[in-house]
Amino acid sequence: MMKILRIVIAAMLVSLPISAQQTPPSPGLDFSYKSLLERNNVAKSELIWSWLDRYKSPAEKWFSDWQGKPLVSSILIEYPAFHAGEHTTMWLIRTEDEAFYWEMVEGNESDQNEEPIAPQVYDAIYKQMSSWQQMTPKPADELPKDEWPGYFGFLSYHGSHGSKQMLLTLEDFVTCLDKTCLPGKLKSGRVMVALDPILIPESRKTYTHKSEAEIARMTPAQRIDEQISEHENHGLELSDKQSALITRYRRRDGLRGVEYVIQLIDAYQPKRTNDIRFHHAVMMATEIDEHVIRLRSSPDGRQAIDAIERLSVRMRSLGKKENYTETDLPSLKGVNMADDSVRDTLWVNYRIKMSDAELLEFSNYLVQLDPTYPSWSERDFIKDNSRINEAGSPAQVYVMKEPRRYYQAYLGYKKRTGAIMTHPASKP
């Protein structure tokens, strides 16, 4: 059952997140939590003690290193992550005119998240949490199998009226409506309810689809924002008709809007992981390259490639494993998915076999001939029975629905290079 709970709550606790001149007060806060456990007569045999011993909380350092505006108040939550019990630390911060949310998970110190939040959102959370009384954990015999027994975490807060620390139970995060604790038999605990405005911003709750007429009236930059909103609210489902509608209009925009794409890419802030517009912008740039026009064919397009390269350099310098050095950049500078489809098209229709080196040469030729060649034809996803893999299954590839133009371009390429055609053409 713990596994089920971990999955459900991990989905709720999406990572969120600043940097910040005066050391803030932290009166009466014990960041080891030992005095709090002893005061509540928590037996040394309980799991929460051994969990605390394995990792030092970053909270004390966060308080001592704070260099922002003087703090008015703050809230600190620490608990075992619902994946493998990693020490998770959340810090909500209030200055006179700003508020922030910090988060870090044990083992991912380089990925400390620091997000700004609306001051009124913070104030509502502080009002709720500062009124809570400590709950008592359920007896072990009332818990689902393999669930965490005893206390599950810690809540600390301080403000103009002083400070307080209290223990949290699993039910503060999620409540099981019966002992199965299965999806559908769960509801959010008070911690999750209080944090809901941060985890699910109001803009997502109120997002609604725009009509085609509204999308048609938008500027290219507005359509980019609309596509990002669609992805953030409905994911990247292939069956998302609304996303497909927006995509159709964005492809008509072509390179119009590329300046805004570059702005989004350059706006990357590594500690603002709740804002991934830079990633959507990279995806849109590669999509234009694969379906509309090769970016490397124009100054504007090359500037977009340069922006992705700058982004990758920044990400690597920060120790980020995920960047675009080995994925998008090679295809943008060389052979992309459209080129692969062209190669498969020439094989399936004309039995022309191209090496990787020849495909790159042909791609460069097409860029000079007409950089919009990815848009010459729509594509079909087919099974190629002429190529069988080791498992005995046919190759599954994308081919161009209208192959002749690519074939004629290939003949021109061969003529230009002075090569002798030796490939049999099954379809003239």
List the helices and strands and how they pair.
Layout: H1 2-12, H2 34-39, H3 47-53, H4 59-65, E1 71-80, E2 87-95, E3 99-105, E4 113-116, H5 119-129, E5 151-159, E6 162-169, E7 174-176, E8 186-188, H6 190-199, H7 202-205, H8 212-217, H9 220-234, H10 241-253, H11 258-266, H12 277-291, H13 299-317, H14 328-333, H15 337-350, H16 356-369, E9 379-388, E10 394-400, H17 404-417
Antiparallel strand pairs: 1-2, 1-5, 2-3, 3-4, 5-6, 7-8, 9-10
Helix pairs in contact: 5-6, 9-10, 11-12, 11-13
Kindly describe this structure.
The structure is a single chain. This protein is α+β, with helices and mostly antiparallel strands and 428 residues long. It has 3 domains: 2-203, no CATH class; 207-333; 337-417, no CATH class. The chain has 17 helices and 10 strands. It has helices at 2-12, 34-39, 47-53, 59-65, 119-129, 190-199, 202-205, 212-217, 220-234, 241-253, 258-266, 277-291, 299-317, 328-333, 337-350, 356-369, 404-417, and strands at 71-80, 87-95, 99-105, 113-116, 151-159, 162-169, 174-176, 186-188, 379-388, 394-400. The chain has a 6-stranded antiparallel beta sheet, sandwiched between helices. It starts with a helix and ends in an 11-residue tail after the last helix. 29% of the residues are buried.
